[in-house]
Amino acid sequence: MLKNLVAKVCQRYNVGRPRVVIGVPSGITEVEERAVEESVIRAGAKEVFLIEEPMAAAIGAGLDVAEPTGNIIVDIGGGTTEVAVISLGGIVISNSLRIAGDELDEDIINYIKKELGLLIGITTAEEVKIQIGCAMPLMTELSMEIKGRDLNTGYPRNAIVTSSQIGQAMENSISEIIDVVKITLEKTPPELAADIVEKGVVLAGGGALIKNLDKLISQRIEMPVYIAEEPLECVVKGTGKTLADLENLKSVLINSRKRR
């Protein structure tokens, strides 16, 4: 996959061996760093730079990560939720949780299976989450027709699910995500915590689009919570910005390796 990707970039932009910035989870080990670097080098890259995904998300969200003040980003992706406090171009404290979009999809599948006796696929669950999923009750309840297999008869069947039902399905996982945000805030140095209280928390990743999630987190932690512009693309945008301005953003890279 990497070889094909690098080859397409070289062909499109008529370049030789390119420089590559790779987003990696926070807390990556040195062994994992080397494994990523070597894989990309073997795929045809000249230089490999690694950036932690929460840092990339913060840059993509427009946060000034180089300032001596504190910022906090909550990146709710597909497989993991990453929470990081950032200051002076580095991650001061971070926590990672293996509960995010994929786990919420599983919650919806299990809820519908248990409560409605209907088996649905992962694609349907994700569509339900996007269309009517909510972290708090909505002003106007939404509903959606779904199709699946009846667990009693084995035949196809349609059913109607509501936003309140889906909110209930995701409730425990969302609470765990909020708990990780709380834990991170509790461990944040006091001088940075003061900045965060003033600036608020920024949400990124696809999970940030769950209706009323920002309001629920704000209610639980008692401070402002904002959704980044185009949250789905924050990590990609931040990685691109870093690559385009490596000299000024070199401090955000956790490692680099150069081979000619």
Tally of DSSP helical segments: 10
Q: Please give the number of β-strands.
A: 11
Approximate shape: globular
Main pleated-sheet profile: 5 strands, mixed
Q: Largest beta sheet: what is the strand line-up? A: 5-4-3-9-10
Q: Could you name the key traits of this structure?
A:
260 residues; alpha/beta; five-stranded mixed β-sheet; three-stranded mixed β-sheet; 10 helices; 23% strand; globular
Description:
- With 260 residues, the protein is an alpha/beta fold.
- The chain has ten helices and eleven strands.
- It has helices spanning 2-13, 30-42, 53-60, 101-116, 122-132, 163-186, 190-199, 213-221, 234-244, 246-249, and strands at residues 19-24, 47-52, 71-76, 81-87, 90-97, 118-119, 143-150, 156-162, 201-204, 225-227, 255-258.
- The strands form three sheets. It has a five-stranded mixed β-sheet, sandwiched between helices. Strands 1-2-11 form a three-stranded mixed β-sheet, sandwiched between helices. A three-stranded antiparallel β-sheet has the order 6-7-8.
- A hairpin with a 5-residue loop joins strand 7 and strand 8.
- The two termini are 22 Å apart.
Question: In a few lines, what is going on in this structure?
Answer:
The protein is α/β, with parallel strands linked by helices.
How are the SSEs ordered, and which strands pair?
Blueprint: H1 2-13, E1 19-24, H2 30-42, E2 47-52, H3 53-60, E3 71-76, E4 81-87, E5 90-97, H4 101-116, E6 118-119, H5 122-132, E7 143-150, E8 156-162, H6 163-186, H7 190-199, E9 201-204, H8 213-221, E10 225-227, H9 234-244, H10 246-249, E11 255-258
Parallel strand pairs: 1-2, 3-9, 9-10
Antiparallel strand pairs: 2-11, 3-4, 4-5, 6-7, 7-8
